[in-house]
Amino acid sequence: MKRLLHGSTALALAWVVSSATPAAADTSACTHHWSGPQVCIRMEGRNGWNKITAIWTNPPRAAKTRTVYLTQDGQQVGHQHTARRKGKTLSYTWSAFEQGTNAKMCVRFRGIDRVACDTTKYIGNRASL
Description:
The chain has one helix at residues 2-19; strands at 27-30, 39-46, 49-56, 65-72, 75-76, 81-86, 89-98, 104-109, 115-119. By secondary structure, it is mostly beta strands. 22% of the residues are buried.
């Protein structure tokens, strides 16, 4: 009986691992300056298919909106968008789309010379337990 339970447990565990969804490859990167605007990029997704968020972490209190741009490998993606205040930050999130892997994605806010970039990565079909 003990051997049968051990085999059943292993089979159940194998099924759970094989049916789990692949792990997300969420990453973020920020500009690193001691003063001035702090800009960040966050990518949420996996295997070159991400939604991307631009974040200005320390805008002036009076700033309610700001134009933001997204580039992929140096080329602007789509049109400019308007980042809006969310608490103490300004941010905008692009809907998920396929960038491919090893693509350099960057965000820039109008009027700020700081640019935050991150690179898409392929993580495979890893299961999260």
